[in-house]
Structures are given as C-alpha cells and as structure tokens.
Design goal:
The chain is an alpha/beta fold. The chain has one domain: NAD(P)-binding Rossmann-like Domain (Rossmann fold, 3-Layer(aba) Sandwich), CATH 3.40.50. The chain contains eight helices and seven strands; from the N terminus they run E-H-E-E-H-E-H-E-H-H-E-H-H-H-E. Strands 3-2-1-4-5-6-7 form a seven-stranded parallel β-sheet, with helices on both faces. Strand 1, helix 1 and strand 2 form a beta-alpha-beta unit. Helix 1 packs across helix 8.
Length: about 230
C-alpha cells in the first residue's frame, strides 16, 4: 500500500497504523523521513514522470499497489482579492491534480487485480468553506467529486473510492496557532477538543479493511462534529 506525504502529521500516522498491522507500506515524500519499516520513495506529485517512477519503484519492491492513500497536500492561505494565480494553481495542482495522477496510476494495477482501495484525505474545510482558503477548500471539495466518480467507474471491479474529511487535528500545522485561535476553534467543535492523527488513521485503516468492502463513494468526517457531515 502507498501513502503520499507520509513523513509527518496525518500521513505519518496513517503509514504507522498500516505498519503496525504488518502491511507492506511505501511512503512518498519530497525530502525523505518515512517511518521506520516503510519504503521511502521520493516523489513530487506535481510531476507526472515522478509519479510514474514512484509507482515503478513501489511495484518492484512490494508488488502492485492495492491501497492508495492520497494525503499529500499544501496550503497557500490568503484572502481572495490577494490570492495570486500561483497561490491558486500551486494548491490545485498539488492537492487535486496530484491526487488525480495518483489515482489514475493506481487504478491501472487495481483493474488488473480486480480489487483495490483508493482513499483521499480531504478536509472539513472542503465541505464547510473557510475564509482565506478559497484555493484549499476548492481542492479538497474536488476530491469528493473525484472519489464519487471513481466509485461509479471502478466499482464493477471491486475497487472502492472513499474520502476521509478531518477536522482540526493536533499537527505541526495547527501547533502554530495562537492560544486565542485555538480556543475559538475548540469552541466550535461539539466534542470540545482537537482530534489526534491516530483517530484519522483509524478511519483510513478501516476503509482499507475487509469490513469496509461494501463502502464506496462515502465521505467520512472525523471532525468532532464540526461539519456534521456537510
């Protein structure tokens, strides 16, 4: 199985959860740092040739990719009137188009095997919206339409495509918020706390398990009730 952006945060927790189950795990990063026990593959998902080379490396080491977790993503937050063309295109190309490249390449092997799991890591922001994140929210919302289209296109071959939509999670990205910002966000969450990366990983490993074989085209919010599934 392959996890993109698996050197830190949510991606690392996902990779570690699969490793703990005894799975063969490959992780793509741009600069290294995969968890111990995972195949560390360097890949820039905005480069089609790099994606092809990464899959070739993983397939040579582990065989066909049966589970893809498309997690790698970036932000370039700013209000819309200040948002540059590059702010928009870089986020869309990484988060949305990069995920398309990964899914397309993974589907090739999954169709031959007549089985597979594609899991996109979206965000509650993609469903609720967020001021200053027009580009990021659009990219994360796009993953929902992509997953549901893939679910319809690939379902007859026992390939599922699903989305996990995390809310506010304790990661390096949220650690930079001020105490006031953290308190404001926490006050919006019915469970009254931030989530953990392990809680996201639990949802992902379930979607990849035999118990989720009849789940496809789903958006699973792991957000403490912040989005209520919308």
């Amino acid at each position: 199985m392959l996890v993109t952006g698996g050197n830190r945060g949510i991606g690392r927790a996902i990779a570690e959860a699969f490793l703990a189950q005894g799975d063969l795990v490959a992780v793509t990063t741009r600069s290294g740092g995969a968890p111990e026990g995972a195949l560390d593959v360097r890949c820039d998902i905005t480069d089609p040739d790099a994606v092809e080379a990464a899959f070739a490396e993983v397939e040579a080491a582990h065989g066909p990719v049966e589970v893809l977790v498309a997690n790698a993503g970036i932000t370039a937050d700013t209000l819309v009137l200040r948002m540059s063309e590059d702010d928009w295109s870089s986020v869309i190309d990484t988060n949305l188009t990069g995920s398309f490249r990964l899914a397309k390449r993974a589907a090739k092997g999954m169709l031959r095997q007549r089985r597979g799991r594609i899991i996109f890591i979206s965000s509650v922001v993609g469903l609720l919206g967020s001021a200053g994140q027009v580009n990021y929210a659009a990219s994360k919302a796009g993953l929902v339409g992509m997953a549901r289209s893939l679910a319809r296109e690939l379902g007859s071959r026992s390939i599922t495509a699903n989305v996990v939509a995390p809310g506010f999670i304790e990661t390096d990205m949220t650690a930079v918020l001020t105490d006031t910002q953290r308190d404001t966000i926490r006050g919006q969450v019915p469970l009254g706390r931030y989530g953990s990366t392990a809680e996201i990983a639990s949802a992902v490993t379930w979607l990849a398990s035999p118990g989720a074989a009849y789940v496809t085209g789903a958006v699973i919010p792991v957000d403490g009730g912040l989005g209520m599934g919308h």
